[in-house]
């Protein structure tokens, strides 16, 4: 379920996900957009946003080290007077592998809360794979995924907060981006609602043939743990994706 400003409950939830993922031998957990402090909480974006060297990331880095499993998630990032809708990938050793500030801000709430990013989405290594980062609406623009593919990404991680009414993104556009660029796209969404906004769920991992490797329903809280198919001389990697999100305890 969405975080909705419940920071301690969110961290407890990440701890649970890491334990499950690591027990399965996974290398990376993927969570949704603005997991900290919550997506549809513009009242909290500016007041709670933290820099990448702040306590949220320090705590997540330690959790990754302790579990020996990486974490990719979205958060509100503060950089001086500016606030960004950011995704951060942390490796199993606690190293920050990459960060990315969302370029394609969606709707009036995001445009009021955040400054758009101005740097290209990153490509980074995890084991023998090369991963790219996008956030939600970015994946709907073919040029972003194509640019990552040109720069060597064979997996794109996409934290998202896709609302009801936009199910076509998970059903059509994510598989299309994977097929167009001969890579894998992992798209992690919320289910349930947050401050009146209902999310569409339907988290999905799509392969180069546009087929769904694994997916969740609109209302089902689940974790997808997937052994990614081989590509070229890369060995299979394990990706644990929070699909439609397990319930975060109240409190």
TrEMBL record:
Gene3D superfamilies, sorted: Carbon-nitrogen hydrolase (3.60.110.10)
Matching Pfam families: CN_hydrolase
Which UniProt key words apply to this protein? Hydrolase
Which parts of the sequence belong to the CN hydrolase domain? 1-230
Task: List, in alphabetical order, the Gene Ontology terms for molecular function in this entry.
Answer: hydrolase activity, acting on carbon-nitrogen (but not peptide) bonds, in linear amides
| Alphabetized InterPro entries for the sequence | Aliph_Amidase/BUP, C-N_Hydrolase, C-N_Hydrolase_sf, RamA-like, UPF0012_CS
Which domain of life, per UniProt? Bacteria
Q: Which family does it belong to?
A: Belongs to the carbon-nitrogen hydrolase superfamily. NIT1/NIT2 family.
List the PANTHER family: BETA-UREIDOPROPIONASE, NITRILASE C965.09-RELATED
State what protein this is by name.
Carbon-nitrogen hydrolase family protein
Q: Which organism is it from?
A: Paenirhodobacter populi
């Amino acid at each position: 379920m969405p975080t909705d400003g419940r920071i301690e409950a969110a961290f407890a939830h990440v701890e649970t996900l890491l334990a499950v993922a690591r027990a399965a031998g996974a290398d990376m957990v993927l969570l949704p957009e603005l997991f900290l402090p919550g997506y549809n909480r513009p009242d909290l974006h500016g007041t709670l946003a933290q820099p990448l060297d702040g306590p949220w990331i320090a705590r997540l880095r330690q959790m990754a080290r302790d579990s020996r499993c990486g974490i990719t998630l979205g958060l509100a990032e503060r950089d001086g007077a500016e606030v960004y809708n950011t995704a951060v990938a942390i490796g199993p050793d606690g190293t920050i592998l990459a960060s990315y500030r969302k370029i394609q801000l969606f709707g009036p709430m995001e445009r009021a809360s955040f400054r758009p990013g101005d740097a290209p989405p990153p490509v980074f290594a995890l084991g023998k794979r090369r991963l790219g980062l996008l956030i939600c609406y970015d994946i709907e623009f073919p040029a972003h995924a194509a640019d990552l593919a040109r720069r060597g990404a064979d997996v794109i991680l996409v934290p998202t907060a896709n609302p009801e009414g936009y199910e076509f993104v998970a059903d059509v556009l994510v598989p299309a981006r994977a097929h167009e660029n001969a890579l894998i796209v992992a798209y992690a969404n919320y289910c349930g609602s947050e401050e009146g906004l209902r999310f569409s769920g339907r988290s999905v991992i799509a392969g180069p043939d546009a087929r769904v490797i694994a997916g969740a329903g609109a209302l089902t809280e689940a974790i997808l743990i997937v052994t990614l198919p081989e590509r070229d001389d890369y060995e299979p990697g394990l990706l644990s994706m929070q699909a439609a999100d397990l319930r975060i305890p109240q409190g």
